[in-house]
Amino acid sequence: MKDSVDGVVEQWRLRLPSIEVEAAAVLGRVHRISRIVQLQSEAVLEEAGLTRGEFDVLAVLMRHGRPLAPTEIAAALSASPAGTTKRVQKLLAAGLLTRRPHESDRRSALLDLTPRARQAIPPLLEAITGIERELLSILPRDETSRLNHALRVLLVELESKGPGGA
User: Fold this and answer.
1) How far apart, in Å, are the Cα atoms of 64 and each of 58, 60, 72, 116?
2) Cα–chain center distance at 40
């Protein structure tokens, strides 16, 4: 059984056999899998008139269960304030967010989901997680658990080193 990464690894081994590319193969597969999931989930969101970034803003608010300041949303998404502002403005114009003054900080605002957004999120999330479940169903359950554990160990270590994992 071979995948698209195997071909790249073989090419590097032929051209530069002294360089170990196993780590690149692992991370290349993670990246490729992530891209496949991203493309499939973006198709679901596009049908709903949303980008992934816009959905992520809505999802942060849904998960927190309370209004948030734009800076809190940006931090939760590890996104730039400017990028978050652009997404928020589109969601406000679409009637999916409300904005009100922050009670304790007059310079800031609090954003919240509209009832329409609260109704739209669950079916979208179910469709996206359904795609993810289907893709992972290729693996036996115990392999999925081991993979999840190994990726968690790696991510915890990288995140402990700060932004950028360095």
Assistant:
1) 10, 6, 10, 17
2) 13
Tokens of 89: 């403005």
CA angle 132, 58, 81 (to 5 degrees): 110
**In sequence order, which residues have a C-beta less than 8 Å from that of residue 36 and are 6 or more positions away?**
135
With H, G, I as helix, E, B as strand and everything else as coil, classify residue 51: coil
- Among 122, 123, 60, 124, residue whose Cα is nearest residue 97: 60
Residue located via tokens 């700060």: 162
Predicted TM-score (pTM) of this structure: 0.86
The end-to-end CA distance of the chain, in Å, is 34
Radius of gyration of the chain (CA): 20
* Three-state secondary structure readout of 70-94: HHHHHHHHCCCHHHHHHHHHHHHHC
Amino acid at 106: R
pLDDT tens for each residue of 97-141: 999 998 887 788 999 999 999 999 999 999 999 999 999 999 999
Q: Which residue type does 90 have?
A: K
Q: Give yes or no for a contact between 61 and 68, defined as CB atoms under 8 angstroms apart.
A: yes
